[in-house]
Each structure stands twice: as structure tokens, then as C-alpha cells.
């Protein structure tokens, strides 16, 4: 048999790649590798608001683990690399929602625990006014009406994994019964005082109007942000319990009292926006957080709490009819949940848009667990102090 044709092909030198082709291959490999890492292992996030002070500051850059709770398989698989929902230059949509995969998650190392700092997709972010993306669409509708909002803004819907990313502390896990009274959370009947990082407003009355505020800076207060005058000798402080205990011990301080809303003072945009519940951000509940397999009775008391979860998050058609409710066209007097849910709140209790305003976070919205700060940048700092060196590589607790 003649093997020369084989020898010819085998010895023929390979064509060398051009420089441009080498660069192209390297870029493609880097994009694929980086995408796999950020989808399944770890991803960087930044803190844009003060809702988690004192735990996390504006300008903190975090690494968030996808492994701890189990990486979520992309639900919107066709998307531009490294863009979340909007292209950075053109402002156009950065994904194709014509292909949607159902929710799946790889096995994780742990379940979500109370007090974990969690990144998740904003539950109310399924509908967005493009010209006012920093505002809750549903709050806008409640304020002026759906027709007015739709005539003024471009309204779009977003899939679960392309909704805005939020970061909060998990206060309640699936099955917990939560309430809040005068700013104090109760979980399953047990009062849970704020940890050292939790802060609310306090009214501080001084014995004199001649006060050296430098002493408060040394305690960790930012004068223009955390302290504001109410009268000549009375100020509003935003601080943690530990910080306020130090304030109480000062000899020129007459009194320190928490400033919380009065029970029964209605705050209309507090979840579940039910006129029969006289709730506000400091006084609400009890609320039971839905758990997978938990069955709730459907009536006028429960439906304001759970209707959105049943319809929007779990994909059922819910209708109110004479004498009861229809779920997917079938009369029902109860519903069994298919997912676990969580209750998230910011550490800066009086400056946080959280579950008190939009309710439960479904498990399919969970992105990952915040691990540590890899960079912290203070835009208001001087040239040499813009980087908060003391925060670099701090773990998040």
C-alpha cells in the first residue's frame, strides 16, 4: 500500500497564525474565561448608596461569591458580555429576552442564614421606567397613577436575572415570622436588637448650645451626614447603638432617645400597601416569610401579603371573583408555595429601600453572598486619602 499521501500531509508545515488572529483568539478566550468566572464563581460589585452604612460605604468594591449559595444558571443566556441590562455607550438593551431558561441553581456550600449580606435582583425591577431607573416603578404608579407614568416614561419589563442588583442583610429566612415595633425587629417571638453595624436616628439634647463637635468625629460620625440640627440645643444623630452609648456618657449630653415613627402612623408605601394595615417603616407585622411547601389560606387578610409572590414570582394568573379567588382559572382557597423567600433590610434603617417597601425576595432572585472589600474609594477625600486603606480586604460580617 502506498503511504506517501499520508507522509505528505503529516510533514506539511502548519500555517502560522497572523498576529491579528492570535490577538483575536486571546480576546475570545479571555472573554469566555471571565464570563465563566463571574457567572459561576465570583463577581465584583460596587456600593452605590448608603443603605448599608456602617457595614458598607459608598465607594466600596466587593467580591461576591456565587459558590456559597450555589451558582444560578443564566436565565437569559443571550447577552452582551460584562453588561448587566444596558449597553454602556448606546444605552440600549444588553440582552435578548426571546430565549428564557427556567430557574436552576447548582448545589451550594450553604443555605442563606440570618444576618448574611446578600446580593440579589431587585424584586420590583420587573417593570422599569427607563428615564427614571433609580425609582421604584410601582411607587410611581401608586403616587400618580399608571396612565400618567406610562404617558410620561418609556416602560420596559426585565427578566429576573437582568433586574437591578441590590445588596442588603438577610433579616428573615423562609418560614420566619417577623414584626417590628419602634424600630426593633422581632423574629419568631424573640427581639433582635441591632448589631454594631445597624444604625437609626436618635434625638440628642445637649445641656448647652456651645458644643465641640470634633469629639463626635473621633467617635466615627460624619458631621454633615450623620448630625443635623433640630433646634439650638437639640440634634438628630444617625448612629449605631455602640456609638450612641458613647454619646450618652458625655457630660454635656442631657438625653439620647431613638427617633422612630409612632405606631399607627400610616406610611402609605410600606409593604403590602394595604389600607387595612396601619404600618410604617418602624412598626409593622407580623409577617410570615413564605417557605417552599408552605400552604397559606387565601383570604382578605393574607392576599395583600402574598398575591404578588403567587402571581409575579411564581407565574400564576390570580383573579378575585365573588366569594373567593381563581388561580389559573381554578377556584382556590389555599396556595402552596414553590420557592423559598427571604426578608432583606439595610443596616442604615432610616435610609434604605428594602423589604419593608417591596416585600419578599424569591430564591430565584438570589445572586450571591458578599465576601470581602477589595477596594474602597472616597470621592470626597483629599488626593492622598481617596482610598480608604483601612477597609481594603476587610471581610463582610
Automatic annotation (TrEMBL):
Instruction: Tell me one Pfam family matched here.
Output: Peptidase_S26
Principal place where this protein is found? membrane
Gene Ontology molecular function, alphabetical: serine-type endopeptidase activity; signal peptidase activity
Q: Key word Transmembrane present in the record?
A: yes
Q: Name the chemical reaction catalysed here.
A: Cleavage of hydrophobic, N-terminal signal or leader sequences from secreted and periplasmic proteins
- GO cellular component, as recorded: membrane
Membrane topology category: Single-pass type II membrane protein
Q: What is its EC number?
A: 3.4.21.89
Q: Which UniProt keywords apply?
A: Hydrolase, Membrane, Protease, Transmembrane, Transmembrane helix
**Membrane-spanning parts:** 23-41
Uppermost EC category: hydrolase
Residues annotated as the enzyme's active site? 51, 168
* Localization in the cell: Membrane
Q: Which Gene3D superfamilies match?
A: Umud Fragment, subunit A
Name all Peptidase S26 domain ranges. Answer: 21-196, 337-375
What are its GO biological-process terms?
A: signal peptide processing
> What NCBIfam families is this protein classified in?
sigpep_I_bact (TIGR02227)
Q: Which family does it belong to?
A: Belongs to the peptidase S26 family.
Quote the protein name from its UniProt record: Signal peptidase I
